[in-house]
Design brief:
Shape of chain A: globular
Number of strands of chain A: 22
Low-confidence stretches of chain A: 440-446
CATH topology of chain A: Beta-galactosidase, Chain A, domain 5
Largest interface: A-B, 158 and 158 residues
Oligomer: homodimer
CATH architecture of chain A: Distorted Sandwich
Structural class of chain A: mainly beta
Distance between the termini of chain A: 38 Å
Radius of gyration of chain A: 24 Å
Strand content of chain A: over 45%
């Protein structure tokens, strides 16, 4: 089912149960398209066993507003994709450093300012990952004098690009798991934006410095990072619905309780809410009811009668913007007030900050589209997810920052009839899996 | 600074810049104590360069309430540590499966029911991890015709235990990073609790089934997982304070704006709030103002004058309990309504669900202690952090569940004068780092 074989040809990638295309775009960086997964349990016949998951996914924008209000810092509310280009600010990956020794590399191509083709080498790496983690396991202790343990190691495939947007470096990973999950991980590193100051010690700071004194005469300015993904999911076909499975408390009152057949006073159940229009597709992950957010295909059901779906599992970094709605930087990136938005697919709606982000006044961006309140039930819909961080700098982030990660997992949810990893074979008796820095005979301590 | 050498002797572990003790406890499972980190930038003199971080950390409780209210399911509101014992339900780890080939193993010892010592083999594994990730990097494109890229791979140390609490398996990782971070990761797998039903298809479900139909006549019941850590941080000494660095929006009104020297209407700054009493130490991560939650040592400052600290970075799985306060299961695990609580250290306050969890009515647990509202500023304080998941089962979770992870990172925040990874050497010219399943000559596809 999986192993060492990665088939990679002109960006077409086949690995384990996955098949997808890895592309390069000047503005978006990596573009994943036509991702489908093999389902051994699906109806017989080769074609139906390969099932669509993602039509196209890419980072639509990275919004980085700095929080020093003085005029000289006013322009530092960067839209890294729309103003600079994530592909243009990706640089050749360092083999063995940015990506492990087993990585394969893909080049990028785009048209230069003079219209001629430009070849950018080693823009994306693709590698198999074994981190020492477990895909599934169980120890059954229920049999007398017998322990049965089954474990399967977790091996995945990563497609990575690194964008050095001026001072800051974003490591952008697409991780494909044999469980059917796609994990999107943003790792932040690189250099902080700093400003000169007369202060040489925190005791001297007399008024709001708009940042942290990280070294003598050096303030690292407060800022945000919002990495917004455009995820045109096609869960088993084009027409999907966005469902909130809302965890809803049920509390019995004391009188009813006395007569009830159980002492349990409260529990929760799931209230299923199908988003009809775009307004229902806006979710603030920081407030409101806890919910599983699921893209389903209402036309396809499992054998058990559940709608097939993929859900969004947030993996940290869930900040939303706190700027005033009428502030100019916020108008350009108004979509950052909600981490999740769902819109109907439109060919012209690719860039969250608008096609001409540099000159945008907010009229042609994701927030404006999303306000049109179009119907999204059973349509070809797009998930926009924003990974957000309020970045208060600390001294450890200076002069270069240890990586800090956040992201999300797109996880099959009643997509398969059962755990698709069940058929994975256990570890053999050859030389076992390793994942340490000694494995290649090398050490990083030199 | 780091590399292949793990020094492990009777649970004492030294690796890279870390030193700590790994212990075993019948109830808590793994206990990490006296964790300290070497600081090359600290004042000369060997002793002062080794700095305390964590006095003692362990999983205090795992609360798993099921959401079927019928009497036969009433007792299924498990306190896995207090009622069963995480150490007692940990089983020998499978080399090559639960832990990679480069892992070392530790045994556990405890007194059996007859008072005699019991030796439990291979309870905890300790291994170095290289996942293909980056510790820090930057590409500097600011010099004409010159690209300078520096990358350092991320190599860490993991101490792992797997607890198979009946049907369910928890993979509990403590990951020590050379950046000074300690990551706590809970990975959930194993078997769902199911109940028999007459339903064979979702269309037949006539009333709330309290779960998901995952197979014919099989309902996987809704439930929660709350993994509560007791983290007695000693940041550079015993007496610490709990600080909320609250991201606070500043909005200028339009009139003032016209006269101002900047067109920027809004920004955020940090309001520093020191928790005086236990009530200030209770935080609901799902609501309220975004904040960096920091343990600081008010008696120790960096050279720049910032208080030394470690902060909590949530890594997903941030659910809080929605049960009614007077419901019996909730009374026993009342602490699950807030993900973060800070209490003064008390020798008798180890178990969030109380010393005698099985018979507890809530009077001797974390919520009751935390309600005493004791002073916590500049004291020997304890961080209690609950990783929480509302688990709506899906068909993929059946019959065994692919791992789903959540956790937190304890991250140095003005603890070091600068990024402690700066001194890491780049990759050498030997055989480079690998992390794939082929590395050991083995494949998992057999």
């Amino acid at each position: 089912m999986h192993g060492c074989c990665i088939w990679l040809c002109c960006g077409n990638c086949r690995w384990a149960n996955w098949e997808f295309h890895v592309g390069f775009d000047m503005r978006a960086g990596t573009v994943i398209s036509l991702a489908s997964v093999h389902d051994a349990d699906a109806d017989a016949g080769g074609a139906r066993r390969r099932r669509q998951v993602l039509y196209r996914g890419f980072v639509s924008e990275i919004f980085v507003p700095y929080m020093d209000p003085v005029e000289e810092w006013y322009y530092r509310t960067f839209l890294d994709a729309g103003e600079y280009g994530l592909g243009l600010w990706a640089f050749p990956l360092q083999p063995g450093g940015d990506c492990p020794a087993n990585a394969a590399y893909l080049d990028g191509h785009y048209s230069g300012q003079d219209g001629r083709p430009v070849e950018a080498r080693n823009m994306i790496c693709v590698f198999e990952r074994y981190s020492g983690d477990v895909a599934w396991r169980h120890t059954e202790a229920g049999f007398p004098n017998q322990l049965i343990t089954e474990v399967r190691p977790d091996v995945s495939l990563v497609a990575r690009m690194v964008v050095s947007a001026g001072n800051y470096d974003y490591i952008l990973d697409w991780e494909f798991k044999t469980s059917g999950s796609i994990k999107l991980v943003v790792s932040l590193t690189g250099l902080l934006e700093v400003k000169a100051t007369a202060y040489a010690h925190a005791d001297e700071v007399a008024q709001d410095a708009h940042g942290t004194l990280v070294a003598e005469n050096t303030i690292a300015v407060y800022h945000d990072h919002y990495v917004t993904y455009h995820l045109d999911l096609d869960v088993d076909g084009t027409n999907n619905s966005f469902v909130k499975n809302i965890v809803t408390a049920v509390v019995r009152d004391a009188d009813a309780d006395a007569a009830a057949d159980t002492p349990r006073r409260s529990y929760w159940t799931v209230r299923r809410e199908v988003a009809e229009r775009e307004a229902d597709g806006q979710v603030d992950l920081g407030g409101g009811a806890p919910a599983d957010l699921v893209f389903v295909n209402p036309g396809k059901k499992t054998r058990m009668g559940n709608e097939v779906g993929y859900r969004v599992v947030p993996g940290g970094a869930m900040a939303a913007s706190v700027l005033a709605d009428d502030d100019f930087p916020q108008r350009r990136a108004a979509y950052c007030k909600k981490q999740v938005r769902v819109t109907p697919y439109s060919r012209s709606e690719k860039w969250a900050s608008g096609l001409y982000a540099d000159q945008s006044t907010g009229g042609d961006g994701l927030a404006a589209w999303s306000e049109r309140d179009r119907a999204i039930r059973g349509e070809d819909i797009v998930l926009w997810y924003t990974v957000g961080l309020h970045h208060v700098p600390y001294q450890e982030d200076f002069p270069v920052m240890p990586t800090l990660s956040g992201g999300l997992e797109l996880r099959p949810s009643n997509f398969f009839e059962r755990n698709p990893l069940l058929t994975t074979m256990p570890i053999g008796h050859g030389r076992p899996l390793v994942n340490c820095s000694c494995a290649g005979g090398d050490s990083i301590s030199r």
